[in-house]
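Methods — Computational structure assignment.
A single polypeptide chain was analysed. Its primary sequence is given first, followed by the predicted tertiary structure written as structure tokens.
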Amino acid sequence: MNIHSVPRPSADLASRLLESALALFAERTYEGTQMPTVAQHARVGVGSIYRYFPSKEALGNAAFRHAKGGLLAELTRTTAEPADSTREEFAQIWQGFTRFAGSYPAAFAFLEHQQHDTFLDAESRALAAEIDAFSTGFIERGQQAGEIRDGDPLLLVALALGAFGGLLKTIRPQLITELSPEALAGAESAVWDLLHRKT
């Protein structure tokens, strides 16, 4: 069950439960969070959570799809306009990541934990594969254009995301949008240098 299948009158409560779950998963990890703790964080009775999410796995999958789907939507928005070069497309993707991380720090931190293999269902794995395809597609286009270094696209994506995650750990995600334009541009340039084929 995901957020979109919750009956309309109860959508606000389901959303609150998902936000509480994401906050706790980001802070304590999925494995370290119990269902009663999520209910307490959302200020509802324990029984309420089971009306929307019949198990911890159902809640974890709904939270994953809520976060991953939000990230994919943001990346899709920021890359809607065709880019003139691989470097410009990278700038669009960077903007999407920084905007999502700054607006939804708990969701981004949860995704960054890479702790999902123990509970993801087929629908969640399909969504994860969709965003992987988005990322590797960018790398492959850049390699074909001669602008991105050779190598396994998934590995190059992991290197870039690792650098971005390291930046967020240093400054905290919710503050990334408060960095000066110069600082953000410098960080973007440094991550691009990981990917760029040197001439």
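Note: The chain is about 70% helix and 0% strand.
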